[in-house]
Amino acid sequence: MAINWLQETEKRRELLLQQLTKLCSIESVLDESTANPGAPFGEKIAEALSYMLKLGEAAGFTTKNIDGYAGHIEMGKGEELVGVLAHLDVVPTGDGWISPPFEPEIREGNFFARGAQDDKGAAMAAFVAMQMVKELDLPLSKRVRLILGTDEESHWRDMDYYFEREKMPDMGFTPDADFPIITAEKGMIDFTLTGKVDTNEAPADGWLLESFEAGQRFNMVPDLAQAQLQGDGDVFELKEKYQDFLLSNRIQGYAEESNDHLTLVLEGKAHHGSEPEGGLNAALRLAEFLSSISLDTTGSQYIRFIAEKLCGSFKGEKLNLAQSDDRVGPLTVNGGIFRYQIGGEQGVGLNIRYPISGELTAIRQQMETEAESFGFTVEVVDHKKGHFVDEDHQLVRTLSRVYEEQTGEKGETMAIGGATYARALETGVVFGPLFPGREETAHQRNEYIVVDDLVKATALYAQAIYELAK
Ligand SMILES: [Zn+2]
Question: What is the rounded CA–CA span in Å between residue 430 and residue 419?
Answer without folding.
Answer: 11
